[in-house]
């Protein structure tokens, strides 16, 4: 019997002067209480791959989701040179091209002294930007301004940044904080830490519905994953935690509640 046959395909033979023994090859681990090795599923370890992970015998293969490309073992969005980053800063919103080193830091919206932008999200298909204003208890939106490197376009944007704002007709808001756009169904989700609820409505505020209430203290940030039908939010109240639920408010579940104090994003 050869050493390879003695140890099997998942192990290798180690010889010394006094003994010979088998040890698991890389990508395999010893089965407890048994003299054999089994495959290690690297995909169960968070962070093994940037996006998609496929376990193979003794190894694994990383890949990227649709519309992403693999670069230096990381997944990068295709067409990133055309992507725009929008940044909320107190009572204004600015934009820039993050992958263009010569990009200008252009104003997209400038509010007055009553505006305090807490969170915002982009409705790309509708070419709109939505934000919450906890100072006035409003949710507002405006058309995204045309962004151009040309100075004429930049000056035109500066003249228009104060106009074109629409306030949604949603009554009873106290302190809207987080906001998230469901770009598939065309709905907006938001948290109200003054009323301790999570709500949803259509893009102009119609057909409003409360999804989460009770056992929620100070809801803050919220994001939605419409392709999976789930939403996630943070609560920084007396019992801080991060929770998830289906986008209709069912299947509520706590994800993180230990060693967490002030989850606001």
TrEMBL record:
Lineage, top-rank taxon, reads: Eukaryota
Pfam families on file: cEGF, Ldl_recept_b
Membrane-topology annotation of the record = Single-pass type I membrane protein
The terms describing its cellular component in GO are: plasma membrane
Indicate yes or no for the key word GTP-binding.
no
From the Swiss-Prot or TrEMBL record, state where the protein is found: Membrane
The residues covered by the EGF-like calcium-binding domain are: 39-76
One Gene Ontology term of the biological-process aspect is: canonical Wnt signaling pathway
GO MF entry, a single one: Wnt receptor activity
State the LDL-receptor class B repeat positions. 186-228, 229-265
Q: Which SUPFAM superfamilies match?
A: Growth factor receptor domain (SSF57184), YWTD domain (SSF63825)
Could you list this entry's UniProt keywords, alphabetically sorted: Disulfide bond, EGF-like domain, Endocytosis, Glycoprotein, Lipoprotein, Membrane, Receptor, Repeat, Signal, Transmembrane, Transmembrane helix
- Please report the name of this protein according to its UniProt entry: Low-density lipoprotein receptor-related protein 1
What species does this protein belong to? Pelecanus crispus
